[in-house]
Batch of 4 targets.
Target 1
Amino acid sequence: MEKTALASRKTSQRIRVIVQILFFTLIALTALNGYLETIGISIPLISLASLHALCPFGGVVTIYSLVTTGTFVQKIHASSIVLLGLVGIFSILFGPVFCSWLCPLGSLQEWLGKLGSKIFKKRYNHFLHPKLENILKWFRYLVLVWVIYVTAQSGQLLFATVDPYYALFNFWSGEVAIQAIVILGLTLLGSLFVERPWCRFACPLGALLSLTNLVRIFRIRREPSTCISCKKCDNACPMKIKVSGSSIVRDLSCNSCMRCTSDNVCPVPDTVEMKH
């Protein structure tokens, strides 16, 4: 029985990694294919859509323009609105699963974080003072407001000039602004010290999706009657949420990675789960 349970846990841990790898590969190949098309080459069976068309955040920044003028922000495609709707539905159901399961930049930060944890061991993700972290985690909401405002005023996707996601998959094309490459470099370097620094402190899409933690239908729940207060759920949480301190996790930082659950780290079955 113990071997079966362990195998089940290993399987559940691998599912998210497989999804992350598949989506990262898809976006990378799509970006590469878009570039190759300019020189008369293409990858069979891979979409020629631009990164902006495949990013749900494009749907956020173009809504104002679409409502007021009936046109999309420059470089934004209708598919971004569709993707935003789909991501929104899943977020209302399960929280910000896009961030922890699908976002390729988030996945890359997480993978680099695993390297950082091997280098720095217990110091990893503990370099910043807790008070500083509590201040920094609100910065992404300011970024969200700024991005929507400047895009609405200009009618152009100015965020692309500082977007590390866009830089990650276009740095070879010559279309990426130097500041975006610098921010990408700092993000990847910071990932060796802090878990998902861009996601936690600066990502405007993550800020928007995090608000669904207030209304999501399926939540991370802890059963106090079976909890043994081992704090393993707290230690496993990359966002440093005190899962053991409440029966329902409502923290805006939760990205539904499910590392804290009984399927992954909690030693007591059915104690920490995502459920209605």
Target 2
Amino acid sequence: METEIAFAWAVLEIVWINLLLSGDNAILIALACRELPIRQRRLGIFIGAMGGLILRIVFTFVVIEVLSAPLVKTAGGLLLTAIAIRLATDRAGHAQVEAKPRFWNAVISIIAADAAMSLDNVLAIAAAAEGSLRLVIFGLALSAPILMFGATAILRLLDRFPLLIWAGAALLGWIAGDLIASDPFWPRFTGFKPSMFALSVAGASIVMLVAVLARQAER
């Protein structure tokens, strides 16, 4: 029963991660293709998204392999914490790409920019999956339709319910704490195994605290 609950929770985490972190990539695709003729636009979006997805698959399995090395999970957890804070403080920051009037230029632009922007999504999915191949495949499969069709719907949802962004940022902070606690460095080299629950709570709390302070400082 506990295993089933843990699996269901991981599925929910991955769905949430994809909705929050694939939105900018979906907007990128729409922007890159907006100058193409209507007949070419859908094909450009499809080919560009598939090319980006193939690279994302490669990156994900590389990340999964690398995460087994000491201190890599800790570094990944700190990076996820920074991503979560950015998500809570500035959603509109990095989905910018120049429109391309030529078909293959647009496709290449989509693939290159999506590859550069996918680290947060790849790292979060790999961390939430906790080594489960089924969950990794589910997360990658879910990202494909979001990339191709989901930008407008995601933005409307997040604009209508901004609390979802904060909740998603807290979730990423939680996953970051869990990732740091599971780093093999601690028991192997220090003889101490941190509490996953305590570090997960700490990760979510730090993200919320820093985000709130950053928002107040901007006023």
Target 3
Amino acid sequence: MPSPRPEIAGLSSCYHGGPNYAEFERLGLKPGDVLDFSSNSNPYPFKLEFTLEDIIIDHYPDSDSTELRRIIGTQNGITAENVIVGSGSMEIIRLVAQAYFNKGDRVLVLKPTFGEYEQSCLISGAEVVELWSEEKCDFRFDVDRCVKLIQVLKPKAVFICNPDNPTGQYLARPQLEAILRAANACLVILDEAYIAFTEDAWRSIDLISNSNLIIVRSMTKDFALAGLRLGYGLAHPTIIRNLFKVKPPWNVNVVAQHAGCQALSAGAYIKRSDRLIRQNRNYLITEFNSLGFNVIPTRTNFFLMKVGDAKEFRSSLMKKGVIVRDCTSFGLPEYVRIAPRTLPECKRLVANVKALR
């Protein structure tokens, strides 16, 4: 058999911790009966007002997602030339690595965080340098340390998840601007997958005039469209043109494009979801604090909770048809991450945790 590239031969798959249908079957559970608190998506389904009969599916989709890019640009006060659409925000991350990273490049990743940043770097042969936040500071990033490391390391790129997954911590605008000033010779990838449900979020779009910044966002999280896979990137037109050079043709199917155009007109839906999610999150935090758990303060629609043995905690709940995210793969084996669902479902989670205690 021919051998793959050395970077691929030694590569392990990136663990994501979502629903495992083989695990459901082994436990005798039906997927529809399992409550999933492990996925940081909107738990309130968005109602799509079309059917397959309304869409032309016997032709290729628009390879450039022109209409969707135009709507995204208009809503953000920029042009379609500042926008690229992908099959989930993860595709945008992979395109960035494919377009910009060479073997031996050093890339700084602020951790703990989403594992796909590192995975994309390793696929490209880039070297990952980790900068970890500390538990004693509730996992808030030390921006001064970050700036100094960038000045010494001079990396090809910096990955920042803001708000961070899984910690829920959020950098203020002056903090990010300090990082951008230090990183003026490298690419800064700002992942805002959870920005729609972030308290006191500031407008990062104003910073994309800096030619080294790309903002990545997920419509999956906002509109509960995980099965359609939809995300986008916002950047200076030069960066967007480079990403288009490596983007596969027809990367976003026609159903996803149509759904995205419709979803972006539903501002009232997002506001209502944000209000309900925040109420349900606060309910869970109050309940778990009263049970003696250490819950890390958060600015978004999920939170970290210290449980001791995260793997065992998840396994015990799984047997009851409830999933939380074991954060061992993030380097946090004592923590689980929980994203609120509807209030009745949150009450069921609390009842199950009380039964375990």
Target 4
Amino acid sequence: MSMLTPPGMGGKYRITGDKFPRMRQRRRRGRFVVVVVASVAALSLIGWGTLQLIDVFTGGGKKASAAGPKADCATKAGPSPTTTAAASVPKPAQITVNVYNATPRSGLAKDTADELEKRGFKIGDVGNASKEFDKKIKGTAILLGPSSSLNSSLPVLATQLTSAERRTDASRKGADVDLIIGNGFKNLTAKSDADKALAALRNPQPAPTSSKKSC
């Protein structure tokens, strides 16, 4: 009998050897299981928290994407400004043009005035340009009118001489406009081209609109 066997115990209770059996193995396994479970739970909480943060910063995923098209559909195109401008374009017969010659070439003002009259414009004064412009215009011509003519009669007259410079004078009274012929002038724009430009001015193409469907 081993000295480790308690007195009075033998048989199957007999302990052999010179060391007590170790009984701590089960405790270590229990702690390992607890650690694993705690780790899994911690990872789950971290993952759930991450998803919540993603939803906060992205606006809720599907909800945010659903709101996008509605916002786009709510945008509507306003009326084209060219449509409103076309209504203020007068006819050539409603425009009185004064023709002045600022070049040394004689008879240029009268010939130009006669051609404009054939094209439907009313003709006012015809003669030499004032000292302010006489022999001082290097370009083809200057179209001069009151402030109110900037988007009305001046664009119409400009269809007959597309290279002319347009100017307005706020202190000027009346509705007449001047065509002051410069040194670079040769002829008025060809009538066929002028008619096309005038038609485009009176019937402008509508501005392109968005192709998105309304909601």
